[in-house]
Write a structure and sequence with these properties.
Radius of gyration: 20 Å
Order of helices and strands: EHEEHEEEEHHHEEE
Number of strands: 10
Structural class: alpha/beta
Helix content: 25-40%
Shape: globular
Strand content: 25-35%
Number of helices: 5
Oligomer: single chain
Length: 187
């Protein structure tokens, strides 16, 4: 007996496909325990982030504390990382290649102007997680970036930003809990 976890309308499509192939599909018990989905793990290499290493680690930890669908972990020695983090003398920026992959630059220019390093790191990692800039914006929006001013040190994503990342990396996560799923049992 094989157990398959399916989401939404996909369960009906699979049941129809199986019946056309001669298999028998039976709905699982409604009270079956809901097994949490594992977070997608993204690795980051902050080896080139120089004096901003602790800010990068804290920015990653903030995302890990804020969302369930993705987890940022330091890359192991010799492991190719999804995200490279570098320090340079320019303005902070992220260059995503695909969702969850790319390069982050923690620019000293913004730090020299008084912007908070942890907010910068969390903001730029947000771009790698699929979030756009939202300028101008209030300090309560992490993705408002520099438009919130140098007095803003809030490194936390707001509820909408969290929900967008959850949707980007798994769709099943709504409000921090997996959405209901159908279970299909195939004999």
């Amino acid at each position: 007996m094989h157990f398959l976890r399916l989401t939404g309308g996909l369960a009906a499509a699979c049941a129809l496909s199986l019946s056309l192939m001669g298999g028998q599909a039976v709905a699982g018990p409604a009270d079956a325990p809901d097994i949490p989905l594992a977070a997608r793990v993204l690795t980051y290499d902050a080896g080139g982030s120089a004096e901003f290493r602790s800010a990068v680690d804290r920015g990653a930890a903030i995302w890990n504390e804020s969302v369930d669908a993705v987890e940022l972990r330091p890359a192991a020695a010799g492991q190719r990382a999804n995200i490279r983090v570098l320090a340079d003398d320019g303005w902070p920026r992220a260059l995503p290649t695909t969702l969850g992959n790319g390069t982050v630059y923690i620019g000293r220019q913004a730090v020299g102007q008084g912007y908070d390093t942890i907010r910068i790191a969390a903001h730029e990692l947000g771009h790698i997680l699929g979030l756009p800039d939202r300028k101008p914006g209030p300090c309560s929006s992490l993705m408002s970036g520099s438009s919130a001013g140098t007095a803003c040190t809030n490194p936390l994503p707001n509820a909408a930003e969290k929900a967008e990342v959850e949707g980007n990396f798994g769709g099943e996560f709504v409000g921090g809990a997996p959405a209901p799923r159908a279970e299909l049992i195939v004999d």
